Structure to design on (290 residues):
């Protein structure tokens, strides 16, 4: 989770919304790490989770990540939660809850829906205050400028 | 929609699930067209819609597609519907309904949820039988082989 926070801080320093994600394989191997790059790539889908999931599969050479965990500093949105299903990620551990934009514990709660094709184990609230504080500091600074 | 069907047929000929998508700008300009490439790219997120939305933004140079329409041969899944929100696509016109995997008229019905940040206009069932027949032929042939 510390690596995910480092990616989030690096994203903030690039002027991106500070969200970071890391995909960890069996035995704790870091397969991929990414920060949000929507501004830099001019791609609204370039969320940290999407970039890290794609990179992890590229590194591994397979398409599925059932034995891997995704660490991310913010609750994934419906797009990223939907992607996590397609990648068959085994576990998702996230920092801050996102009552407005989240898709795991809020909104559509994708994994809790009947008929969901894959249900990753999820744990929310990891280092929650730190994750919230980072997001608040970023948006606070933007409102001031 | 004919271009989306052509992309779906091209995807099938590559051994991909036959789904095709086209993003059309104001005045009917085709900004991007793509077929499903999850197998070729070893990327479970490489759905036709994701590829076409990203390409459309790249072609245009902006991040938003509010004055554009996405034509796609199958009802978008939750990942792609979530992406359509982030891209602020104006309209989505799709072919076959997807009761098991869809996220627009089925499952989480993302755009109908309270708090959804952007609600594209949606029209489903365009050339529905043709779209269904194409998918059935593909999966039927795979079961036989």
């Amino acid at each position: 989770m510390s690596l995910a926070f480092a990616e989030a801080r690096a994203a903030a320093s690039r002027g991106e919304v500070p969200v970071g994600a890391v995909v960890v394989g069996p035995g704790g191997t870091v397969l991929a790490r990414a920060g949000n790059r929507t501004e830099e790539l001019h791609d609204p889908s370039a969320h940290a989770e999407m970039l890290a999931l794609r990179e992890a599969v590229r590194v591994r050479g397979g398409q599925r990540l059932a034995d891997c965990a995704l660490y991310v500093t913010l609750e994934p949105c419906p797009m990223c939660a939907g992607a996590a299903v397609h990648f068959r990620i085994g576990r998702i551990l996230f920092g801050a809850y996102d009552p407005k934009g989240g898709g795991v514990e809020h909104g559509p709660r994708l994994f809790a829906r009947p008929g969901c094709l894959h249900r990753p184990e999820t744990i929310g609230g990891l280092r929650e205050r730190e994750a919230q504080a980072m997001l608040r500091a970023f948006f606070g600074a933007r409102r001031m400028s």
Chain A has one domain: 1-136. Residues 83 and 123 of chain A are 17 Å apart (CA to CA). The radius of gyration of chain A is 14 Å.
